Amino acid sequence: MIEYLENISLDIHTGVITALIITLFLMLLSIYAGITSIRKARTLPFFRMRRQRMLNGWRLLFTAFFLGALALILNYKAEPIIYSFFPPTPTATLTPTITVTPSITVSPTITLTPSITNTPLFSPTPTITHTPYIPLAVEVLFESTITPNAEAVFSPLTFSDGLDDQYRPLKPGTIFENPINHMYAVFSYDGMEVGSQWTALWFRGEELVHYETIPWNGGSGGLGYTDWEPDPSEWTPDIYEVQIFIGHIWKVSGQFTVEGEAPTPAPSATFTPTNTPTATNTPTRTPYPTATRVPTDTPRPTRTPYISATPTLKPTPYPTLTRTPTPTQTIPPTSTPTIFSTEQ
Fold first, then answer.
1. CB of 211 within 8 A of CB of 200?
2. Which candidate, 27, 150, 331, 333, has a CA 20 to 30 Å from the CA of 81?
3. Which SS3 state, helix, strand or coil, does residue 48 take?
4. CATH top-level class for 136-259?
5. Span 223-244, pLDDT tens digits
6. Quick check: 170 and 159 in contact, CB under 8 A?
7. Rounded to whole angstroms, how far apart are CA atoms 13 and 88?
8. For the chain, what percentages of helix, strand and coil (3-state, to nearest 5) are there?
9. Which one, of 75, 74, 89, 72, lies nearest residue 10 by Cα?
10. Contact predicate 156/185, CB 8 Å
11. For residues 262 and 228, what is the distance between their CA atoms, to the nearest angstrom?
C-alpha cells in the first residue's frame, strides 16, 4: 500500500507538469491564431466576412487568456489540491547493519626506539587573510548621505576586454595577453538603493592603481560594470584584483592575470635645457665728447641771369581781314534851273 501511494505521488507531479506545458503551448497557439485572424480580417472587403473573422480572432484571444489563468492554477494550486485527496505517505527506510569480519591478528614486533628528530630551521607560518577595506584617501571622497542596503547582493565578477551593446562581456576570461587597452569587470546586482555610495578598487598585486567612487545611479537590480582604461604600457604582467563596496561594506572581489610584456610607451618630446651664459661685467662705454656746432655758411647773393644779346623775334600775328561793305551809290541831285532876272 505504501509503495502504491508513492507511485501515485510521483505520477501526480509528472501529470501536473505535463498539463502545465500543454496549457502553455495551447495558450501561445491561441494568441498567434487570434492575432493572425484579426490582421487578415482587416484586409477583407466584405463587411460580414470581416466581422466574422474579427469575432473568431477575439474568441481565440479570450481562450488564450483563459488558458493562461488555467496554467497559473495548475502551477500553484493543482498539486496541493490533489494531495489533499491523496496524501503521500513516507516510506520506511531500511538501515543496513554493519557485519564485522574478523581479521588476522598480527603478532607484535620489536618497536625501534625513535632517534633524534631533525627540527626544521623554518616553519611555514600561515598567512592571515584580511577583510578588504576602503583606503582613507578614497573614503574622504564619499558624497552620499544615504544609508546603503546591507542586504544588496552582487554576482561574481566576470572580466573581459570588451562589451557588446547590451553590456555583456565579449570574451570573458581570467588570463589575458598583452597588449590590453580597456578592461571591464561585469556583475549583476539586486537590492541596491539609488543614491547610496558605491566604490570599485583596482589593485595590481598590493598596489592600488585605480578606483571609482560615486553615488549609485542605476536601478535596484540589473547588470553593471566597472572599467579601467590606462595607457597600454601600464598593464604590466601581474595578478590584478577588483573589489566592490557598498558604503563601507565589502561585497565581492575578483582576480585576473595579465601575461606578456606590456608595450613600450611612446617617447614624448622632451626639451633639453641649454646652459644660459652668465653675464660678464663689461666696461662701461666712455661717452663721446659733445660735438661743437659748425657755423652755417653765409648765403651767397642770388646770381643775376644773363640777358641774351639777340632778342627773340616773336612772329607778328597776321591782321584780321575786315570786310568793308560796298558803299551805296548816291543819286546825284536833280539840277534846279537857274532863273536869271533881266531887270536891272
1. yes
2. 27
3. helix
4. mainly beta
5. 899 999 999 999 999 999 999 9
6. no
7. 12
8. 25, 20, 55
9. 89
10. no
11. 16
Greater pLDDT, 92 or 208: 208
**Dist. CA 279–CA 210, nearest whole Å:** 49
CB contact burial 225-261 (16+ within 10 A = b; e otherwise): bbbbeeebeebeeeebbbbbbbbeebbbbbebebeee
Tally Cβ neighbours within 10 Å of residue 45: 6
Whether the pLDDT of residue 330 is over 60: the answer is no
Count helices and strands (H / E) in the chain: 4, 9
Residue 179 preceded by cis peptide, ω within 30: yes
Q: In terms of pLDDT, which residue wins out, 278 or 140?
A: 140
Mark out the alpha helices in the chain (DSSP H runs): 2-41, 47-76, 78-85, 136-139
Q: What percent of the chain has pLDDT over 70?
A: 62
Q: What is the DSSP letter of 169?
A: B
If you average pLDDT over residues 2-23, what whole number do you get? 69
pLDDT band at 255 (very low <50, low <70, confident <90, very high): very high
pTM greater than 0.70:
no
> Where in the chain are the domains?
2-85, 136-259
Rounded to 10°, the helix 47-76/2-41 angle is 160
Rounded CA separation 201/213 (Å): 9
Amino acid at 95: T
Q: What amino acid is encoded at 247 in this protein?
A: G
